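From the pipeline queue, job 12 of 40. The input is one protein chain; the requested action is below.

Action: predict structure.
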Amino acid sequence: KITDSVVAESIPSQKKFNEIQARYNQNEKKSMTELEKAEFNKSYEKEFNEFFKDGYVKKWCAKVDRIESLNSGTAAYVRLSCDFPEAEYAVDEMLIPADSELYKKIMPLKSGDVVVFSGKLVSGDYSKKIVDLTTSYGYKNKKLYIDFTDIEKMSTKE
């Protein structure tokens, strides 16, 4: 219930994105020829790109999946998981410099915390897409890559 109100105020609508993702997941499970799969992926990639337009997301909601120190403590890696009915995906931020304000905000976070985040979607290390829906090692990579501009633990008090 608490996350529903946050998701309702997100920009662009995280609820709408979850609906697109759920539709993608349902359609992906249908058996298709390789050509049908290619066309299907192209149409969804177009829909995702049109949805994100400028690439900024504001006040989206997720759970901290992983947070760790990198490069001898000079940066941090954060992975968030969005686990909504029929729409599951990860949000990755590769390097948050230890000397940044953002680093200070993530220091008290731990795995399992529910957070509200904002940022700009970017290409992943191995993908030119901001939404990575490629198959890798037999698993579907459903990820958004982001440069956070803000992240904070969400109050779970009603």
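Job complete. Residues 101 and 150 are 9 Å apart (CA to CA).
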